[in-house]
Amino acid sequence: MSARVQSESFDLGAELSGFGAGAGAIVTFSGLVRDEGGRLVALEIEHYPGMTEKALAAYGAEAAQRFGLSDWRVIHRHGRLAVGEPIMMVATAARHRQAAFAAAEYLMDWLKSRAPFWKREIGPGGAGAWVEARSEDEDALSRW
């Protein structure tokens, strides 16, 4: 069970090697930088070291307790990430698929709405606007 914030990329296969041993179900989600119809070339992601890791660990611990997870992992990157690069991953392991899927969705909703990251869009002309919170993400979080 772990949460990491890092600038370097990660290998999903390596991250899952040995993950969730003995579980009945493992669910993974990986987020990639989207090109947003060609208007985006990169995202710049900032965070507060220490505070961010603590928040991610708390979300993971809450998911483990709430859904009976035997294992969980959250990795989120920071720095400048080009279109197509992985931003983050969530992995959950539980006895049954329903719990593993629900826990992964729960973690994703918390990450999108509450994790202390700040994202700025980088377009063909350079740095653009900071990404603002979306009402859809808040609505998703409200179901929990």
Report what the structure shows.
There is one protein chain. By secondary structure, this protein is α+β, with helices and mostly antiparallel strands. It has one domain: Molybdopterin biosynthesis MoaE subunit (Aldehyde Oxidoreductase, domain 3), CATH 3.90.1170. The chain has 4 helices and 8 strands. Strand 7 and strand 8 (126-130) form a beta hairpin. The radius of gyration is 15 Å and the shape is globular. The chain starts with a strand and ends with a helix.
Into which percentage range does the β-strand content fall?
35-45%
Structural class: alpha+beta
Instruction: Give the proportion of residues in helices.
Output: 25-40%
CATH class: Alpha Beta
Q: Work out the radius of gyration.
A: 15 Å
Task: Report how far apart the termini are.
Answer: 21 Å
Give the tally of β-strands: 8
